[in-house]
Amino acid sequence: MFEVLMYDGGVYRSDELYEIIEDVGGVVLQKIRSAQMLTVIMSVPEEDRQAVEAVCRDIGGEVRNVPLAGTEIAVIGPTLGRHHMPHPICDIAEILRRNGAVTVVMGMARGRGKATSQISMTERCIVDEYDGAIFMMGNFKSCVETKAALMQDIHVPTLLVSGPMPEGIEGTCDAVVSGVGRKASRMRSVEERDKLNEIVDAMERILRDKSRSLEEDPLFVHPAEIKQVLESYEPINMCLRPAPMVLHLDGLRIKIPYAEHREYLENVMIYGRRLGEIADITPSKIDDSSVLIRIKSRSQIEDEDRRKAQ
Known about the structure:
- The chain is of the alpha/beta class.
- It folds into three domains: 2-65, ACT domain (Alpha-Beta Plaits), CATH 3.30.70; 72-214, Rossmann fold (3-Layer(aba) Sandwich), CATH 3.40.50; 223-309.
- It has helices at 14-23, 49-58, 87-98, 121-127, 141-147, 190-216, 223-230, 234-237, 258-267, 275-278, 298-309, and strands at 2-10, 27-34, 37-45, 62-65, 72-77, 102-107, 132-136, 158-162, 175-178, 245-247, 251-254, 269-270, 273-274, 279-283, 291-295.
């Protein structure tokens, strides 16, 4: 049994952390360096957790559980305008990051207005690139109930966050958290912090359901195993964007152009097979800014092998 932990501390003596992770058979899922500060998300065997924590304390860092590690979540407002993009959206994105998720904040092109708001097919496809999505709608009940239709036909787990509790929106999202509307200040009070934790718990719950469905027909390889193989690829090492490789529940996002690197990625060998055979490799819908790798399940690979043998 593996546990996912986050180390938060300095870069000094971080080599000792990487050594203990390797010694216990763990995996570094993500590392983010900012000046002299370092954040490392790791997966380590449960029985070796105390040894890893001891090294982290010795080098002056902190360790904590991160239930959303290995996921990328979109936090969406109706628009990017100041009317729809208030402080709570940033607070929600930040609390998700502190619990291990990689977050992206975005707004829709035509989300303004109860009667005129809409979401395009391209926008739906972009949202479907993530592990889950949080839609924050606002303070007016009738407006929230109408705009809930924007979440229809999105295939990833969705969470609606709003001020009032909407009615009659069954089937449009996986969970609802009310009591968080538009406000012009940060969420600092005890009640507001508890509400942020409620959002994290709701997101963790619906993503856990997605993980369980994946476990029924396991992936051919774990996304972290592909990440380890690709870490030596120079264009990824030279990428200056934050977190050049982001883990998903069913694959990963690599922040390099698809057209330039498709051939190399398809021919990378994973356990004796080409990556192009065991995963679907596609460009992101966001201006070819990254590559999406969706790992096939074991049953899919077995079916394809049987068809090839006939």
